[in-house]
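#struct-queue
[09:14] JT: dropping the first one here, sequence first, then the structure tokens:
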Amino acid sequence: MKKILVTGGAGYIGSHTAVELLNAGYEIIIVDNFYNSKPETIENIKKITNKDFLFYEGDVCDKKLLRKIFSENEIDAAIHFAGFKAVGESVAKPLMYYRNNIDSTLTLLETMQEFNCQKLVFSSSATVYGDPERLPIDEKCRLSVTNPYGATKLYIEGILKDLYISDNEWSIAILRYFNPVGAHESRLIGEDPNGIPNNLVPYIVKVANKELPYLNIFGNDYNTKDGTGVRDYIHVVDLAKGHLNSLNYILDHKGIDYYNLGTGKGYSVLELVKTFEKVNNVTIPYKIVDRRPGDIAVCYANPSYAKEKLNWEAKLGLESMLKSSYNFSKNTNHKKL
């Protein structure tokens, strides 16, 4: 049975991927420092899958901890989620983002190299395309960034490319994903950020639950159908399955490659709000405010390469994403374990 290290495995995408890995028969080891996640998520992954696994609490920047994990376990591959991920926060705190996201990756790669583990799935982002040169975005589009978060992802992609050039024994899948939304059908894991959310749907959920008075919509003067930003929203369970398929692929193939994980459909912020109201029978008050620095007008994927190479495609639609997000927020069980 293959043993997979999942960094940031208590986080939103990491936890859903951990469930898919366990259900597919992999052994997993999770390392997480709970910076933007919660300890009960670990227990909820076990509850959903009815399987146990090793967990180490700590920071992936900590070389001593990583060496301990690798020396205590025969790890076959790693999936690297650990990192800060908020565009707005990265603009306000660029040094924090550069230090954490790049440092954690270098520490992981150095440790993997030391222990002769050369298979990696990396959590990148569609932000590496910046303001895209064409739509839908394919993997050959020009790379550029409009914020420090995106810059850290692009720098890490460069590090991984140089690593592969230096040693062709590596197997690396770089996943550029679009906007993850939704929650597991168990209602036990989902997006539950600490503090005020940076992402749109958790913010909408807090407004729906009357934890926040209204939603801020950042700009209604973009060149889009209703003036609000358009994004490609992907169900987190579909995204998790994309990581599983990527892992299966790199275990059998050497090389480095890049994959867009998205639906290929773009929805505006207002379309998202109206769909949320309809499927959940709630009202979401909102205010139009100034654009955020670093935001772009339109971003959606051409996901055909992932279908061709990884035999993966998104199956779940926007209504399922928004209903499951709200259902997760209403389920107090995930907060009581």
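[09:21] JT: and here's the second one, same format:
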Amino acid sequence: MTAEHLDVIIVGAGLSGIGAACHLQKHCPGKRYLILEDREAMGGTWDLFRYPGIRSDSDMHTLGYNFKPWVAEKAIAEGPAILEYIHEAAEENGIPRHIRYQHRVVRAQWSSDDARWTLEVQRGETGERVTYSCNFLLMCAGYYRYREGFTPEFPDRERFGGEIIHPQHWPENLDYTGKRVVVIGSGATAVTLVPAMAEQAAHVVMLQRSPTYMIVRPFRDRLANALRKILPDTWAYALTRWKNVHLQQMLYRRTRKHPEQVRKMLLDRIRAEMGPDYDVDTDFTPRYDPWDQRLCLVPDSDFFDAIKSGKASVVTDHIERFTENGILLQSGNELEADIIVTATGLNMVIMGEIDFVVDGKPVDFSETWTYKGLMYSGVPNLVNTFGYINASWTLRADLTAEYFCQLLNHMDALDKQQVTPTLRPEDQNMQPHLWVDDFSAGYMQRVLHAFPKQGDHAPWLNTQNYLEDRKLLGHASFDDGALVFSSPVQEARSAA
């Protein structure tokens, strides 16, 4: 059976994939494309996660697409509102007819003889294997394993008599009214869950080994809401986006240059929230510098309000083992619980866990060098979307999609079929650096060894800097010598 052939295949119908399709239709209207989505619905993270209080940890004026204004009153949005926004973008641009759901790409093979990718795809309904082929592959599969979250090994876990739940697999009809809840973890998920569950639970304890930096921001952006009353939505959105991007970048730069100043600022705010009698040093003072890991967003102080109300509390300790009634801590104290929530993070994966092969040779991405954070040395006609760890994901997803479209159009203008990032003579002795430098979050540290390397000079960098990337990618030059353009099929025909 002949494989269905497209100009472009996008892998993933989440926030990035839907946005990429919108950009592709606008900037490359003649290209035939499909989106292959593993799950049964679009939305990615915002369809998968259903735990109480699920919301963005970035403002929607930067997490939203650059082509679709966020017009809701809340800038820090709940998950269902974000999912609706993604659906709106898809419907407005006619994207749904291009999506094939429950199509999981398991293998991607590049042939230079044919200048195309051949994808082996498993259909979820039947398990049958089908094939597709394309000239260019755009990865928008996210960065974590959808099938399971990360849960450490807890001694005697099986002894606990209540329910143990990971936020990635929240039961649809879980009733926690009047229940004692322990949330294990101190990241964004835990900080979201605690105030949301405290509204109905008997009490919620956030059990953490070590604290995370928290920053208070309002649910609503007053300037954005005021601007929309006097300006067109597109203008108000652009101005708010500009403001928030520069505030994000300014804060991040300060954490790198003056970490102690930012540390003091953040902790002073928490002391003001919690009052002079609370032990902020134990429960809210991390051992690392700000932005060595992501800051946890606390909208309108909801997390601190839950603690001050007595409906929630924080315990900083280590787990000895689970018991029949809860968790025994190394201090000797026991936390009694009816429900334990393991908000212990994600399992990061590389390139959607797809097996990649180039001209018969399996690709080990840890042996490749990243080209501008979105392509990889020796791997032709492949662009991967990976957002920022220090800013909103979609800022870079938009830039990546626009760069991708520029690259396609440039190849058409040159009448070339293949583009391969290739180390130049001056790149041969580069010093390797981690895919993301200076970021100590456990979910990333567990897998960084498997990620592509970045070099010590352009274009082999993954800058994690939006303002720099706008210059590098926004009006890209493709004649740096590191991108090698060719037409292997045409060249073979000419030789024959």
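[09:30] RK: nice, looked through the second one.
[09:31] RK: The chain has two domains: 4-146+347-495, 157-342.
[09:31] JT: good to know. The longest helix spans residues 233-257.
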